Amino acid sequence: MFDDRSPIYRQIADQIKDDVLRGVLDADEQVMSTNQYAAYYRINPATAAKAFQQLVDEGVIYKRRGVGMFVAAGAQARLRAQRRERFFAEVLEPMAAEARALGIPAADIVARIHQLIPGDSR
Questions:
Q1: 71-74 long-range contacts, Cβ below 8 Å, gap at least 24?
Q2: Cross-strand pairs, 71
Q3: Residues 71-107 pLDDT 10s
Q4: What does the alpha-carbon distance between residue 82 and residue 111 come to, in Å, rounded to a whole number?
Q5: For residues 24 and 30, what is the distance between their CA atoms, to the nearest angstrom?
Q6: Edge-to-edge, what's the strand order for the sheet holding 68-71?
Q7: Cβ 24 vs Cβ 30: under 8 Å
Q8: How far apart are CA 2 and CA 12, in angstroms?
Q9: Nearest one of 62, 6, 68, 64 to 35, comparing CA atoms
Q10: Residue 120 has pLDDT above 80, yes or no
């Protein structure tokens, strides 16, 4: 599951965010404890705790004292909005700049996108 591209705690946080975004974890659903996570993935509990703290700080999960960690209400919508903004900034804007430089008309780009995302009439 883990690779050398980024710190393990970030990879854990990203995986949980992905699970929330895809609906694998729903609002108010309990997530594994840091100790369960550490045992399952054979990592240091402090690493898992650091990931969970990052998620708490970002409002993705919250802690119920003595019970555990749970997915925050609205976390999926917030993550989707963040990812959309990141998509536009990191993918679409550079692509549009490259298209301008190459002289590709917007209509050609839109037509290609419709080919890649069939059934999307928006």
A1: 71/20, 71/25, 71/26, 71/27, 71/28, 71/29, 71/31, 72/27, 73/27, 73/28, 74/27
A2: 61
A3: 999 999 999 999 999 999 999 999 999 999 999 999 9
A4: 26
A5: 11
A6: 30-31, 68-71, 61-64
A7: no
A8: 8
A9: 68
A10: no
